[in-house]
Design goal:
The complex is a heterodimer.
Chain A (H helix, E strand, L loop, with lengths): L8 E4 L5 E6 L10 E6 L6 E5 L3 E2 L7 E6 L2 E6 L8 E9 L10 E4 L3 E5 L1
Chain B lengths: L2 E5 L3 E2 L5 E8 L6 E8 L5 E7 L6 E3 L7 E6 L4 E6 L8 E9 L7 E2 L3 E5 L2
Parallel strand pairs in B: 2-11
Antiparallel strand pairs in B: 1-3, 3-8, 4-5, 4-9, 5-6, 7-8, 9-10, 9-11
Classes of the chains: A mainly beta, B mainly beta.
């Protein structure tokens, strides 16, 4: 199963907005929910967004997610220095009716967010 | 405290074996599917394997099928990954992560354990 496609890096000044894209296919994003994770080196990845657009517990509304067709996006507004991290999208692949127990899991290659 | 703690990573020669553990605490382990995900240093996350709540359903990525075995001990709240016939391209940080039964996302991850395969 191919990796989902993310831009290697995005950057913006503090207070500005960045959008991270995640592109897949009908067998993965097109057929399943997308989630987003924040990862700092040496730490545990952290769930930000699940089921395409729901924020995980404790995640500020500066973070938002959306999905359309075979692509998804993560938006971060009011950028802060603490947002500098690697961000990954993830989803399942396989047929929808097989549920979370079917197919497998695929992630994007990661996007490094830099606050200028 | 709700947490996942991986252990067992080490330096091993090509062709060797290693067993990783993921000790869990603070939640009902048997309510969750458990997964292993790995990350080559400097690269992205790659899914490795998953096991359902009672251990009866298991799936592997093609890259590890036939070499790795995932298992769990619900009495000990611990997940395992037995890795055999290790290759240089298995070198990575290995993370365990949980998925609530019926959900489509990883809501908790561990900090990972480093496996280095080298002669």
């Amino acid at each position: 199963q191919s990796v989902l496609t993310q831009p290697p890096s995005v950057s913006a000044a503090p207070g500005q907005k960045v959008i991270i894209s995640c592109s897949g296919s009908t067998s993965d994003i097109g057929n399943h929910y997308v989630s987003w994770y924040q990862h700092l080196p040496g730490t545990a990845p952290k769930l930000l967004i699940y089921d395409n657009n729901k924020r995980a517990s404790g995640i500020p509304d500066r973070f938002s997610g959306s999905k359309s067709g075979t692509s998804a996006t993560l938006g971060i507004t009011g950028l802060q220095t603490g947002d500098e991290a690697e961000y990954y999208c993830g989803t399942w692949w396989g047929t929808w009716d097989s549920g979370p127990s079917g197919g497998g899991v695929v992630f994007g290659g990661g996007t490094k967010v830099t606050v200028l | 405290e709700v947490q996942l703690v991986e252990s067992g990573g080490d330096l091993v020669q090509p062709g060797g074996s290693l067993r990783l553990s993921c000790a869990t605490s603070g939640f009902t382990f048997s309510n969750y599917w458990m997964h292993w995900v790995r990350q080559v240093p400097g690269k992205g996350l790659v899914w490795v394997s998953r096991i359902n709540s009672d251990g009866s359903t298991i799936t592997y990525a093609d890259s590890v099928k036939g070499r790795f075995t995932i298992s769990r001990d619900n009495a000990k709240n611990t997940l395992y990954l037995q890795m055999n016939s290790l290759r240089a391209d298995d070198t990575a940080v290995y993370y365990c992560a949980r998925v609530l039964t019926g959900a489509w996302f990883f809501d908790l991850w561990g900090r990972g354990t480093l496996v280095t395969v080298s002669s």
